Amino acid sequence: MADRGISLHELDPRDRYKLLCGVVVPRPIALVTTLDENGAVNAAPFSFFNVFSENPALIVLGLQHKPDHAPKDTTRNIHRDGEFVVHMVDEALSVAMNDCAVDFPSGDSEVAATGLATLPSIDVKVPRLAAAPFALECRRQVTLNFSPDRELLVGEVLRVHARAGLVDEATMYVDLEAYRPIGRMFGNLYTTQRDTFTLVRESHAQWLARQDAKEAPKG
Ligand SMILES: Cc1cc2nc3c(=O)[nH]c(=O)nc-3n(C[C@H](O)[C@H](O)[C@H](O)COP(=O)(O)O)c2cc1C
């Protein structure tokens, strides 16, 4: 019988989540700070996250509502003032990142609870985390609602703060050895990015030259 794959329409949402999150790996993690209406700094991790454009500089976050269908604190705060800071997570920040996913009551600051130090941002009011390797000051561009419980947030990156020694500002190259980012696999499984390899991207002319060299008679 022909392989018909797995129809997502025939899976319940929980199994779809497990399948898609196991397949699309590793995913980067955004540890997002926002400000609540009383000025408390909220922090929460999101692995439905990526950058997808540099001109304009845009990132996306997949925001799932809570089981009672209420928006998470991060979502509520971004709805209200449109500002947030995305922190990239390195190996040293991984435990604190996970602590920030605890379902603290609304109004409790994960930043205060975990003892994470903050620094002021420049383009947004939301403070950034001092311990993060990179902090991206962001402003909401647009929010797309795909169901009562799921929205996609597109944010513009206004400014990037880098820990000293991570970026060569003459070339904009990032020192991966010094950075040590982590990624999310699925569930409680994470990965480091220590085992990398290089593939050089070719032009069509280079590709043809390589085929010719392969086919040329030896000797
Ligand atoms: C590594 C990791 C990745 C997560 N990714 C997401 C995500 O992409 N979308 C989401 O809605 N929740 C995600 N969560 C769950 C939220 O972090 C969690 O619900 C958090 O308590 C929300 O906090 P808040 O109410 O302060 O915004 C993730 C949790 C972890 C540990």
TrEMBL record:
<dbReference type="InterPro" id="IPR002563">
    <property type="entry name" value="Flavin_Rdtase-like_dom"/>
</dbReference>
<dbReference type="InterPro" id="IPR012349">
    <property type="entry name" value="Split_barrel_FMN-bd"/>
</dbReference>
<keyword id="KW-0285">Flavoprotein</keyword>
<protein>
    <submittedName>
        <fullName>Flavin reductase family protein</fullName>
    </submittedName>
</protein>
<feature type="domain" description="Flavin reductase like">
    <location>
        <begin position="22"/>
        <end position="175"/>
    </location>
</feature>
<keyword id="KW-0288">FMN</keyword>
<comment type="similarity">
    <text>Belongs to the flavoredoxin family.</text>
</comment>
<dbReference type="Pfam" id="PF01613">
    <property type="entry name" value="Flavin_Reduct"/>
</dbReference>
